[in-house]
Amino acid sequence: MAYLDIKSLSVSARSANEIVKIVDGVSFTIDRGEIFGIVGESGSGKTMTCSAMLSLLPNMMSVSADKMTVADTDLLTSSPSLVRGKLISMIFQDPAAALNPVFSIRSQINAVLKRHTTLTSANRKQRLHQLLSDVGLPDTQRVARSYPHELSGGMQQRVLIAMALSTGAQLLIADEPTTALDVTVQAQILELLKSLRERLGLTIIFISHDLAVVSQVCDRVAVMRHGEIVEQGDIFTVLGNPQHAYTRALLASRLGRESARGSLSTVAVSLLEGAKADD
Ligand SMILES: Nc1ncnc2c1ncn2[C@@H]1O[C@H](COP(=O)(O)OP(=O)(O)O)[C@@H](O)[C@H]1O
Ligand SMILES: [Mg+2]
């Protein structure tokens, strides 16, 4: 049985006199321990697809689906308080905006641990340092004492990943987690996500507008356009032999002028090989 199973998920937005389908009949499954990519240009519905799973949609939007389950939990009928954090955690593009500037890292993670666990104060302290070290932050004492502005963007994103893990959630949704970071730091965060999957058995949904980034981290990918999945499958198949014109266009735009040399699929395969060589 699939760990995550979504069938015909739609999100509709009501405006003054019309109803617009923002997400239109999206279906996919994810196995436990997989990293599943959702890729598409800005506005294609990637964030709303995942926000629907967490009941985090704006008021004027409504959800319908034939099925939406994680493990044995039905996301359509469960109370959001049993899903958010407990089952699914989400991290976003801009780590600085997601952290509260007036509280130290220690007090922000401690607040999450208090809400989501039954740990004693002493055990919370221990867990805090374990979490910060799990996400590859050196000198956890210093980081715990710090305020968000004292940390780099990459360190802030690591702190948010630690916070997302602190609830015990087994499914992590990473929504463009590296878009605001420079290329070197981006590569380090991608490595961290892969290692967390290995070490903690996490299942990850990785959202990006960039196929090359997705190719570095995902096992399978769904390509979204105008609220629909136009193509999905194994990352090597989708990039090496894209079936849909939109996937080819995404690849071509990523590759720029290089796509003019030789056939696109050859270029796509070399893109994948290049991405592997960076590992
Ligand atoms: N808060 C909102 N209110 C109204 N419409 C929205 C809102 N957020 C997003 N949308 C609409 O939903 C569509 C999909 O948005 P989103 O899922 O955020 O796209 P993506 O994450 O792929 O960039 C957008 O084209 C936009 O028109
Ligand atoms: Mg988005």
Task: Provide an overview of this structure.
With 279 residues, the chain is α/β, with parallel strands linked by helices. It contains 12 helices and 11 strands. Strands 7-8-9-3-10-11 form a 6-stranded mixed β-sheet, sandwiched between helices. α4 runs parallel beside α7, α5 packs across α7 and α11 packs across α12. The longest helix is centred in the C-terminal third of the chain and has 18 residues. It is globular and about 55 Å long. Bound molecules: adenosine-5'-diphosphate and magnesium ion. The site of magnesium ion (MG) has 3 residues, from α1. Magnesium ion binds next to α1.
In short:
The protein is α/β, with parallel strands linked by helices and 279 residues long. It has helices at 46-53, 80-83, 95-98, 105-116, 121-134, 140-145, 153-166, 183-200, 211-217, 235-240, 245-255, 264-277, and strands at residues 4-14, 19-30, 35-39, 61-64, 67-70, 73-74, 88-91, 171-175, 203-208, 220-225, 228-234.
Compute the average pLDDT.
Answer: 91
Q: Please mark out the parts with pLDDT under 50 across 5 or more consecutive residues, or reply none.
A: 257-262
Which term fits the overall shape?
globular
| Structural class label | alpha/beta
Q: Report the radius of gyration as a whole number of Å.
A: 19 Å
Helix residue percentage: 40-55%
Hetero ligands: adenosine-5'-diphosphate, magnesium ion
How many beta strands in the DSSP annotation?
Answer: 11
Walk across the major sheet and give the strand order: 7-8-9-3-10-11
- Helix tally? 12
Distance between the termini: 31 Å
What percentage of amino acids are in beta strands? 15-25%
Major beta sheet, specifics? 6 strands, mixed
Order of helices and strands: EEEHEEEHEHHHHHEHEHEEHHH
